[in-house]
Design a protein that fits this description.
By secondary structure, this protein is α/β, with parallel strands linked by helices. It has 20 helices and twelve strands. It has a six-stranded mixed beta sheet, with helices on both faces. β10 and β11 form a beta hairpin. α1 packs antiparallel against α2 and α12 packs across α14. The C terminus is likely disordered.
Length: 609
């Protein structure tokens, strides 16, 4: 892979290269499919022929060799199938990266809708989850725990030290493109495996059902030995059938006793052998890398604590589960299980693994989740080289940005410089419809969320203090709660005041406050809200159409300042530059917009009348 190309060109190059590899393995897969089928049919014909000829030596010789060769062919076919799927996954990884850069987020699968919480401080208003969301822009996770970890990072701020560690880890991973995409492609074999991993995690810590019964454990190890001795004696000394029948009967009794517990055990572990194979590959990749940043080294340490490699232990767990799940095979049950209590031994191994590694598994999954989330941040950082990592200010109430833009807006993005610092500082933004007030508020909020997650921000430079983002923008009525939009907004403002009274530094973004009431009530209500905010441990912005509110800057000259977004008429058409300007807005667009839609007549049309 060439690392100096523009990300989009690199991704297109990868799609072409990996696509050719996928095609090559598809052809090999089809060839081996035909070869397997031909070998099977030829072998079957040969066996039927020599069976009809009563030639036992050639028949059994062919049967033995045929089974071995066919097993090797199956294994080779599976390896080719894996490689075919692996390169197909790599193609999809790079196609998804192109979709992000082209602004086609709606075509991506990871919306994070399950994390939507309408009562959250900002996630609804800032498009953190859902279609065309920030989560879709960032998320490349391939594990259930990584998916959840990334969502948690976007829903709450980390401390300054943690943010710094994530930034360093992300920068280290940024240019490890081949390794990052190898991780993704391997994870996609069973991704996301949410249900299986949840069942497995829930199983950890549950009471044992077999190893806490010494008689069953003793039977599981003693009876197979008795059976083995009985078989040897039976065939060596021509003993009566009772020599075999007695231990078989004893085995049946034990199998009957463990049938229900083993079934429950398999259900509890969620038949997760396949997902465990994927986890093993992912963990092996992380274990084999050489890292420098403290965060990545700590993740590796978690996976190799107590001199036990997580990949090795999970491989053992996967094999044990595969072994247990084979109990559904009639041949398995009639041979290994009936004669040697295979499922009893498998269940004992599984429960002992759980006892030995119950704490380890939780740590391993968390370490894997952390890397998975960092992998997403690194991919985003690589794809957007113009983004920058923010500096976390040691001073409170700080938000300073140069060329700040909205990460979910593509070619039409307009950037602005912004600076606000100090306890109680408030910016009142005025402007006409469609001028960019709401988008600017969201731009500030969504970049703060990125900064606090440890991700780069859509700006040339940002200095920001740690604060709680709180928004009030998309207020809707609720039939279920019998709440009007206006009353819902009042409740939202009350929640903001409660959060502020919790003595946490708050950065608020209020869009068109109290728009659901008449002008006089709105004016008086907003004045009352602002008069409280300037005295509390918070700072932020408020947008409004009410120009009279700008007079508050005269009452609170140290706390309140006025900014605006303006429009102009060019060639009889309304034009917005979406640039933040000091002072009040003096251009309003409602009449011109209505004229453009034909709702009211323009001046020239009026003259004709």
């Amino acid at each position: 892979m060439t690392m100096n190309e523009h990300p989009l060109n690199q991704y297109k190059h990868n799609i072409d290269a990996f696509g050719k590899e996928a095609d090559r393995y598809r052809k090999k897969y089809n060839f081996w499919s035909v070869l397997r089928a031909s070998f099977f049919l030829a072998g079957l014909v040969a066996l039927i022929y020599y069976a009809s000829e009563r030639d036992a030596s050639i028949f059994f010789g062919l049967l033995g060799v045929g089974i071995v060769v066919f097993a090797l062919m199956v294994r080779k076919h599976q390896q080719i199938s894996f490689q075919r799927k692996y390169f197909e996954n790599l193609v999809k990884v790079n196609e998804d990266e192109c979709k992000r850069l082209d602004g086609r987020l709606r075509e991506l699968e990871n919306t994070g809708e399950e994390y939507i919480d309408r009562k959250h401080a900002y996630s609804i208003d800032l498009d953190i989850f859902g279609s065309s969301s920030l989560f879709q822009l960032i998320c490349r996770t391939v594990t259930a725990s990584g998916h959840k970890k990334l969502a948690d990072w976007l829903l709450s701020k980390a401390n300054a030290s943690e943010i710094k560690d994530r930034q360093e880890a992300t920068l280290e991973l940024k240019n490890k493109l081949e390794f990052r995409q190898e991780f993704q492609a391997n994870g996609m074999f069973t991704s996301p495996g949410f249900a299986e991993i949840k069942l497995l995690s829930d199983w950890i810590g549950k009471p044992s059902r077999i190893i806490n019964k010494p008689i069953l454990v003793a039977a599981g190890y003693i009876l197979p030995l008795v059976m083995l001795v009985a078989l040897i004696a039976y065939f060596s000394f021509d003993l009566p059938n009772i020599v075999i029948a007695a231990p078989v009967l004893a085995n049946l009794v034990v199998l009957g006793l463990v049938a229900k517990p083993v079934t429950i055990l398999i259900v509890e572990t969620g038949k997760s052998a396949n997902i465990l194979k994927t986890l093993e590959r992912l963990i092996t990749l992380i274990e084999s890398q050489e890292f420098l940043s403290p965060k990545l080294l700590a993740i590796q340490q978690k996976l190799t604590d107590r001199n036990v490699k997580a990949s090795v232990s999970i491989k053992k767990l996967s094999r044990t589960l595969n072994f247990l799940e084979a109990r559904q095979n009639v041949f398995f049950y009639g041979s290994a299980n009936l004669f040697f209590l295979a499922e009893v031994i498998g269940a004992i191994r599984l429960e002992r693994w759980e006892q030995r590694h119950r704490e380890d598994l939780v740590g391993w999954l968390d370490a894997l989740a952390e890397y998975d989330a960092l992998n997403s941040l690194a991919a985003m950082t690589y794809s957007y080289p113009d983004y920058s990592f923010p500096t976390i200010s040691e001073s409170p109430y700080v938000f300073k940005a140069k060329e700040l833009g909205h990460p979910l807006i593509g070619e039409e993005r307009v950037t602005n410089n912004f600076e606000l610092s100090g306890h109680g500082k408030t910016v009142i933004i005025t402007g006409s419809n469609m001028s960019g007030k709401s988008t600017f508020l969201r731009t500030l909020g969504i970049n703060a969320v990125l900064a606090f997650a440890g991700a780069p921000v859509c700006a040339k430079q940002v200095e920001i203090s740690l604060f709680q983002v709180f928004t009030s923008m998309r207020i809707q009525d609720s039939l279920e709660e019998h709440t009007s939009a206006f009353y819902a907004e009042l409740k939202r403002i009350k929640l903001l005041l409660d959060v502020i009274n919790g003595n946490e530094e708050v950065f608020y973004l209020l869009d068109e406050v109290l728009k659901g009431t008449n002008s006089k009530d709105r004016h008086n209500g907003v004045r009352a809200v602002i008069s409280q905010l300037v005295e509390k441990p918070c700072f932020g912005l408020l947008s409004t159409h009410d120009l009279e509110l700008s007079q508050l800057a005269e009452e609170y000259p140290e706390q309140i300042s006025n900014f605006s977004f303006n429009s102009s008429i060019e060639n009889n058409k309304l034009h917005f530059d979406h640039k933040l300007t000091p002072g009040l807005c003096h251009s309003f667009s409602a009449s011109k917009l209505m004229e453009g839609l034909g709702i009211i007549l323009g001046e020239s049309e009026t003259d004709k009348k």
